[in-house]
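FAQ: What does the model actually see?

It sees only this:
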Amino acid sequence: MKIFKSSSLRVRLLIGLMVASLGFWGAWFAVQAMLMSSQQNNRWDASMQAVGQQILMSMPAVQPGAPASRRSSCLRRCMCSRSS
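And it is asked to produce this:
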């Protein structure tokens, strides 16, 4: 901090201007990084949602506690109704 006390007004103004411009640039860079990260997360979320929907569509609709014979007939009905 000795540079601020012993320097001329021109040097102090130049240093102040450089600090302000570097601070603005750093803030702009941080905002851009956050926006890019958000867009990347949105892309992953959309991809994972599509995969999750495909997995859920491929699972048979089975009522809990149904006997095994009903499960297989329910599976056939579900698969036939999805294909048409």
